Amino acid sequence: MRYCVIMCGGVGSRFWPFSRTDKPKQFLDFFGSGRSLLQLTVDRILPITDMSHIFLVTNSAYYDLVRQQLPDIPERNILLEPARRNTAPCICWAAHHILALDPDASIVTLPSDHLVLRETEFHNVIRKGFEFVEAGDRLLTIGLKPTSPHTGYGYIQLGQNVNDDILKVKSFTEKPDLEMAKVFLSTGEFFWNSGMFIWRADSILKAFDRFAPETATLFNAPPGIYGSDRERDFIDAEFPNAPSISIDYAIMEKADNVFVETADLGWSDLGSWNALYDVSPKNPDRNVTQNCNVLSHNCSGSIFASAPDKIIVVSGLEDYIVADSGNALLIYPLKDEQKIRNVVNEVSTRFGEKYI
Amino acid sequence: MRYCVIMCGGVGSRFWPFSRTDKPKQFLDFFGSGRSLLQLTVDRILPITDMSHIFLVTNSAYYDLVRQQLPDIPERNILLEPARRNTAPCICWAAHHILALDPDASIVTLPSDHLVLRETEFHNVIRKGFEFVEAGDRLLTIGLKPTSPHTGYGYIQLGQNVNDDILKVKSFTEKPDLEMAKVFLSTGEFFWNSGMFIWRADSILKAFDRFAPETATLFNAPPGIYGSDRERDFIDAEFPNAPSISIDYAIMEKADNVFVETADLGWSDLGSWNALYDVSPKNPDRNVTQNCNVLSHNCSGSIFASAPDKIIVVSGLEDYIVADSGNALLIYPLKDEQKIRNVVNEVSTRFGEKYI
Q: Which residues contact A253 (CB under 8 A, 6 or more apart)?
């Protein structure tokens, strides 16, 4: 059977003050649609796997938020990480858990905080991907047609074609500099690494055994643990000992059965205010209004975000972020947004954790 | 006996979004001192007149706010205007009311929303003023030594000396242009009109009879009305018929027994964000932080205001107002602050009265 694992334990400061330690980005209703990014992710995969086949891996701290936002997900499908250990341990555990339920399981693993505008294409891509990995011992990642020389993404170099959309992976490159990214784009050979993966549960676990033995050993529980009442205790004891490592670094960059399915999904990782600005509708002054009322004069290229019942009156800002949420207000040039992480740290140090 | 009348019925939009229609400037704790401007005004006059001799004239809409902020003011000392009619009707009514209680009353009339930094000097000035008006039929206004060619204030031209500080008034000039204001300053003959007045109750009423007969007639109640249970009904019926006119225009500019007491009180009418900026302590970047936490980079000459428990993180603003209060956020160049009134009207029209 086909399963979906949604990773929703991440915490990020790039959308501060909207994202907070106690309510990270995936739990926010980013577009004022009434649905959080996590809820939209579940909505998006439902035509492929029904609710009982969707598993959420999150940090214990976010259990209440997950329950509240996704009341229809069965309780047993929520896997609570006792510690933050990046994606590899999370994926390894989920594969063990699902394999214990279904030895023939195949799994699509999804981030919970990305944007996908072309849903039908998404469904086609995921279905085709499942078919591909179910036919053999293959690890598949979804590669997205790049639309700009983005320096914040990982790039996948395409190798030999298997069919029209699926190719062997030649190499992975993390966040290139701008010049390199431009070269990547010009060759047509490089696609963005989406962080969406498809494989059989037994395939990925085999890869862990071979390429990440330290993690694999940790999660190789005695028979009968996974899926039993004792799984939780086992995980609480072992998970914190896992190395903090990404699935790309632990497996994808090392294994030789790695393939990429190319796709054009209207995708953004929404990893920054600039990314949000790029994908949002703009008024004639190129301003983006995010879910609030704005009266602006002599402003351009800016993004304004606040609560839906708040008004922002603003004059004379060019290329700014104005983000007002709860006990914090950010007014910052869009071009300097990479500094926000440091600013948030400074806020925490000088004014206290209640602000972050 | 000596009485104080504090006028606290005004509504202003210049400190929007801090001042709101339902909570104008005089009710705000402007300096984070824990006391509103109105409370500070009462605190300031208490060494001169005790609580039972302080009368508050305000609009009916603000009764609850006044009660809440000044629980020690006797209920009978709150005079509720049934309509907004500028200062002359307000002052005429208060004089009648107090004269009925005390035929020998002298009154200092004060705005409720100004700043006075030199309190001891204020007390000296008011005491000396009382002595002056109690010795004869004289109308006295407090004139403040100007510190800049401000174009938003009224100016009083000094005439002949009565004593060191008190002089005959030669003329009044409302809001001169900048060139004129500079001339005024250079002559040393012109002082700012503070809106603080001292007179005997019978003196000001005599002046009303002579120079503002329309208003005077309206408030000339049959004997026994003022101070009785029937006063409220009388006022509710007559007050709305009064012309809306300032005391300066109705009386001070016309009467010939008008004197000015010159003073240097560390005064500001706090009539604008610029005025507030001018009187507030500044950090090395010339920024003013109003009662909130601010983390600023590359900002100068700006004023930042929010709730005490909120943080503002801001970068790259020069000479800006950032004012965040309740359901509204204002980000506006200080130099354009005279446009705020229009902006507030536009907010009201386009987004609704709940924002103003």
A: A172
Contact with chain B for residue A356, Cβ under 8 A: no
Q: What is the pLDDT of residues A1-46, one digit of tens each?
A: 999 999 999 887 789 999 998 999 999 988 878 999 999 999 999 9
Give the distance from residue B39's alpha carbon to the nearest chain A alpha carbon, in angstroms. 28
Question: Which residue from A317, A324, A346 is facing B295, i.e. has the nearest CB?
Answer: A346
Q: Which residues contact B203 (CB under 8 A, 6 or more apart)?
A: B133, B137, B138, B139, B257
B chain contacts of residue A336, beta-carbon cutoff 8 Å = 315-316
Residue whose pair of structure tokens reads 């936002």 in the numeric block: A69
Choose between B125 and A338: higher pLDDT.
B125
B169 to chain A nearest CA, in Å? Answer: 43
Name the A residues in 257-316 with CB < 8 Å from any B CB: 293, 295, 297, 306-307, 309-316
Q: Which residue of B has its CA nearest to A343?
A: B313
Q: How far is CA A214 from the centre of its chain?
A: 25
| Chain A residues touching B339 at Cβ < 8 A | 315
Secondary structure, 3-state, A44-81: HHCCCCCHHHEEEEEEHHHHHHHHHHCCCCCHHHEEEE
Please name the residue of chain A whose CA is at the shortest distance from the CA of residue B304: A329
Instruction: Tell me if chain B has a CB within 8 Å of the CB of A328.
Output: yes
Query: Which residue do the tokens 């140090």 mark?
Result: A349
User: What are the Cα distances from residue A174, in Å, to A92, A248, A344, B139?
Assistant: 22, 10, 25, 81
CB contact under 8 A, B329 and A310: yes
Summarised one tens digit per residue, pLDDT across range B213-262 is 999 999 999 999 999 999 999 999 999 999 999 999 999 999 999 999 99
Low-confidence ranges of chain B (pLDDT < 50): none
Mean pLDDT of A161-174: 95
Q: Look at residue B279 in the predicted model and tell me its pLDDT.
A: 87
Residue type, B264: D
Mean pLDDT rounded to a whole number for chain B: 95
Residue B257 · residue B139 · CB < 8 Å: yes
Average pLDDT over residues A147-172: 94
Q: Are the beta carbons of B328 and A316 separated by less than 8 Å?
A: no
